[in-house]
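FIELD: query
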Amino acid sequence: MPDKQKTKPQRKLRTYQTSLGFYDQAVAAPSMKAALQAWGASSNLFHQGVAKETDDPDVVAATMASPGVVLRRPVGSDDPFTENAQLPTDLADDEAKPKRRPKRKPKAESKKRPVRTAHKISRKADDEAARKAAAAFEKEERRREAERRKEEAAHAKARARRDKAVAAAEAALEEARRVHAARIEAIEAERAAIDERAEAEQTRWDKQRRKLEDALRRARE
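FIELD: result
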């Protein structure tokens, strides 16, 4: 039972990787949204193409050993991911080199150029990257919204044309039905009149025929 509880979250977690500032960052999280929250990103880095899911076995093994913990390594290097990664070599070398003291006004010079720590530099780069990603994401969202509105307007226009055509066709059909009904009514009236005339003619002929037949019979007697 303990083994099952240990392996259950591992099947749900995935490893995500990005590059922010001077570091590559990786984290084991259940979703892209959770990874963005762990990195402290305010925009969708995956949508911007600066973050991805990775299946590198070494990276996956390192993150799965510490789920939810953001691991780092110097950006662009093949070093293993750790919680306390060292700065990139070139930056560390620059800070390790002794600085030459100017011969004149050393105190004034030291006050003029305060030392900036690597942490401040990294955080500034991270903030700048996050702002750029957020701006790009908002720009893309505005573009999609404009396209959506354009499509909705086109659909509404097409729907209006279709409704107008349907209404015209329905009106034409109704008018044709009315004309047809009027003609049928006229034909039925004419037929009734013809039937009445035919009946009257038949009655007249029966009387005339009987009268003529009687005259013929008397003539033969």
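FIELD: remark
Residues 14 and 28 are 5 Å apart (CA to CA).
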